[in-house]
Predict the structure.
Amino acid sequence: MRDKNKEPEISIVVPIVNEIEELFGFLENLAAQQDIHFQLLVVDGGSTDGSVEYLQQQRIIPDLLLLQGPAGRGRQLNQGGRAATGDYLLFLHVDSRFADSLALRKSLLHLQQTGSSRVAGHFALNFRRTLEDRPLGYYFYEWKARTGRPETIHGDQGFLLPRQLFNALGGFREDFPVMEDTDLAERLRQDAQWQLLPAVISTSARRFEMEGFWQRQLLGALLMCFRSIGWSEFFAQAPGIYRQQNMTLKLQLCPFFSLVLDLLKDLPRRERWRIWLASGGYVRDQAWQIFLFWDVWLAFRQDRPVGGESLRQLAFWEPIFDFLTANSSGRFAAALMLRGWFAGCYHWLQQRENQ
């Protein structure tokens, strides 16, 4: 926590909208961090559940600045970033928790020891679940988050970076209703470097448990693809994709698939094919996850902890796969398979969700 006589080493920025149920646990967890001077900036986007009143009265974090503005995660994050005074910024979700009371000190020291202002860090990710079982899906995504590969770093892993680097990037995009965190991560990757920090962050699995694990992952894959290929029309037409987490129900995917087909229908044939080919290229580039899953499945069967060992199947098969498919023919074949999968999946979803 911050010594009032010193400037903060880290400014922690957290956007919220109606998060009263998470706030006490979040503040209490941060207050347990040792040997670190930080300020906390909570940026509210219009809460009506008592979150603002609670923050105004809390006494857990002495150096807490409450900011208020229009909703929109990109706008909220930028508002907090502009008001921060620490040399390093840490962007967190309100459901993030650290088990290690020295997590922030160790992570800041790790970045400082690189001696570079062009290095950012993300934490190793674990999911907090209400159930006691250990499903393979969560285990796989915890592994994937630790790889640090393109399209694998997201806001639930926490972003720790020098304020100078954040300003150079121009902050988060405010015109994205979703995926503003992934966009920043990939823009940062172009001119700087991501490193895995020596600490674990846990995040609530509430959205997956309420909406459905595979439903959330399938929608996430669509969003990731369309962000990557720059299909902004999809995001412009679907501003309600991310509903507030405390209001989510089982996710219905048919409306999103219908939106894709409606948008494609209104485009010239050449543009439709451009989108399918670009999407096919994205899918081909992400096919390395098949070989990662092989490694993870073997580790899961042996009940091994996440991370900390070589990925032999990925290391062996990925170069072979790239040699065979990293070309125009491979991308075209991926586009054709994607079209067939999309049509079949949409038909299956219609039958399932109409039952």
